[in-house]
Amino acid sequence: MAGPLQLEERKQGKKILFAPSLLSADVLNMEDSIARLGGEADWLHLDIMDGHFVPNLSYGPSLLKALRKRYPDAFLDVHIMVEPPEAFVDMFLAEKPSALTFHLEATPHTHRVLQKIKDNGVLAGITICPGTPVEMLFPVLHMVDLVLLMSVNPGYGGQAFIPEVLDKVSALVNWRASNGAGFLIQMDGGIGPANIAEIAKSGCDVVVAGNSVFGQADPAKVIADMRMIAERR
Ligand code: DX5
Ligand code: ZN
User: Fold this and answer.
1) Whose CA is closest to atom 2 on ligand 1?
2) How many CA atoms lie within 13 A of 181 on its CB side?
């Protein structure tokens, strides 16, 4: 089991890590979009959508492959919104993600999928939609490296933050402390400068932000500003 020390190491001394979602980047100029992050991004977040588990399509393993080739040292955080995940994990694992996160709601075989990811030396993440109780995660928390709490219903960028999700963070923080676990807590959807303070205060370790970052003229500055607000807590 990953321990608390590992958690701190993964945060590299930072209070919170920022993972901009490439869903809101310029698809014809992905390299330029990434350059405009100006080194402020800690991770790059890739949203994979299957038009079945979620009502939208995005991209597949070929983008992950191209990113890994172009940015060999980047932390590539892959969030697969696909059903069933066991039919897709191999094709993503082959392209060397840093973390691979799938939905609890998309499979009855959570332990098996998590183990497969871990066996490949990739950080294993699990995620739940806003309407799924956090307690559903408890049986697998001992095996995960990352828990992603969706703060919008997955499928699209630019949706409004669902604040009820904040209560789930404290439940995870408590479970982690009581069980000596070291997973990171991540939140995804509707996050920007207006709500980063309360999200950071809730105890999140990693935040995903798409529209609020790439929708602005200076994405690097948006992240720097959010980091400053988050560090103030
Ligand atoms: C939603 C995706 C998110 C989304 C975040 O299905 O998982 O990563 O793109 O985008 P914003 O920050 O625009 O809500
Ligand atoms: Zn995502």
Assistant:
1) 154
2) 19
